[in-house]
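Lab manual, section 2.4: Encoding a predicted structure.

Procedure: take the sequence of the chain (376 residues), apply the prediction step described in section 2.3, and record the output as structure tokens. A sample record is shown.
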Amino acid sequence: MSSSACKVAGQRRGKNASRRRSWALVAVLPTLGSPLGSLAALPLGGASLAAVAVVTSVSSTARAEESPEVEALLKRGIQLRKDGKDDEALTVFLEAESQAPKSVRVLLHVATAAQAASKWLMADEYLKKAMSHGDDPYYQKYKAEIEEVRLATAARVGHFRAIGEPDGAEVVLNGQVVGTLPMETPKTLEAGTYIMEVSKPGFFRLRRPISIGGGVLTRESVELNERAPGSVDPADPNGAAAAAEPKSYWASSAFTWTLAGIGAAAGVASGISFYLREQAIEHWNDDDRCLSQTNPDEPRSSVCADVRNDIDTAEQVGIITGVVGIAFAGAALTHWIATGGDSEPGTDTAERRERRSAGHVQCSPGLMNVVCSGTF
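Recorded output:
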């Protein structure tokens, strides 16, 4: 046999040995006048873990508490455990628990199946239920084995409590609310690493990773700093997005006033042009200035040709600037309506972003027109 083949064979033997070690039977329950029945054990990721073994035939005392229907469910669940179908077995045991909620055997089956399915909080819950029946003969008989199961579960379940200020601040772990400051009652959680977030309106948000150990109480001290009005919280995702969003001059009131200023200036220019036109017309109609005294046959257009040009120019300028003034004034009014008349220049406020997400109409000025678009 080649060295590589030996290596593969050795790895397979090691895996099989590890799989065999992952199953441990600690306790069995003999029946009155009957041999030991079927057993159930708990596989746990390659690590030995004691599990309470149960029998399919039980004493007359147990039968008085557990109906044939419950016994059938237990047999079915045990077989599913043997087949490695722990999740399905857990469902069956929970059904049995609904029919015999005070049976220590059933509660322990639920706990060990939950362990095998890595549902540590459920396993801890049902172990506590079983331990509440400490005077039960079944519990007393296998108390040492049950304690081994409890210790194994406790290594995977921890307790968390946050203390500090301000009162009423919301405490969130991995997106799940677990309480408010100060947490009077610890929260039971699976051991592991979490992202803790603590927040309250008017205070800076706190966000940091924490580690919750198994079998111990983890305390986290928290103190939030008060936030000044209008300041941006860098730990707040919404606030950070708002801070990162560039300021928009085009959506500010400053742009509205710019449009209005141009419109007003064009209106003034138009008024001056028409005033100069009237002055030129008076000059044109003045016979003393636009008729030749020495040559009565010379036409007015010849004597005051430059005045006629001034009239035409002033009229054209007045009309053009008047139209421009009206266009920019209308654009300013439209922009003010579309942006809601925001008074703070150069900012894209949360209120405006909210309007964008809802139905709205938005208008933009052109050179001689206004273009409007909307979403509904």
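Check your result against the sample. The chain has three domains: 3-154, 157-234, 253-375.
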